[in-house]
Write a structure and sequence with these properties.
This protein is mainly α. The protein is about 90% helix and about 0% strand. It is built from three helices and no strands. Helix 2 runs antiparallel to helix 3. The two termini are about 15 Å apart.
Length: about 110
């Protein structure tokens, strides 16, 4: 296959893009599952803490406040984890693109000199 044909082949680029998209979805799903499990643990802890607080509205309100704050922290941490994944993917994509560009720029002059 000639270099121009390889460079012009959108199917190859699309397959690599979709491979990366699939990889990223897998990473996001794993992160989501971790935080889902953690949030379930928070709800279980809330249930354990508040089981005997039905007759004391002040204690129950404190428990609700604790749960709300814990879920807010969990949401912020999940957002940070997704941001880190995105930053990492962006960095790795740019690195890969630089390497591919270097290969093509090193390769093209050799073809033209033939």
């Amino acid at each position: 296959m000639e270099l121009e044909e390889i460079k012009g082949n959108n199917d190859y680029e699309k397959s690599k893009f979709m491979e990366g998209a699939s990889w990223m979805c897998t990473k996001v799903n794993r992160e989501k599952e971790k935080y889902d499990e953690r949030d379930k643990e928070l709800f279980n802890e809330f249930d354990t803490r508040t089981v005997d607080w039905e007759n004391d509205p002040n204690l129950l309100l404190r428990g609700i406040k604790w749960l709300r704050e814990a879920l807010e922290v969990s949401t912020l941490e999940f957002d940070e984890a997704l941001g880190s994944l995105q930053d990492s993917a962006q960095y790795n994509m740019e690195e890969a693109m630089r390497k591919v560009q270097k290969v093509f720029s090193d390769f093209e002059p050799n073809i033209l000199s033939l």
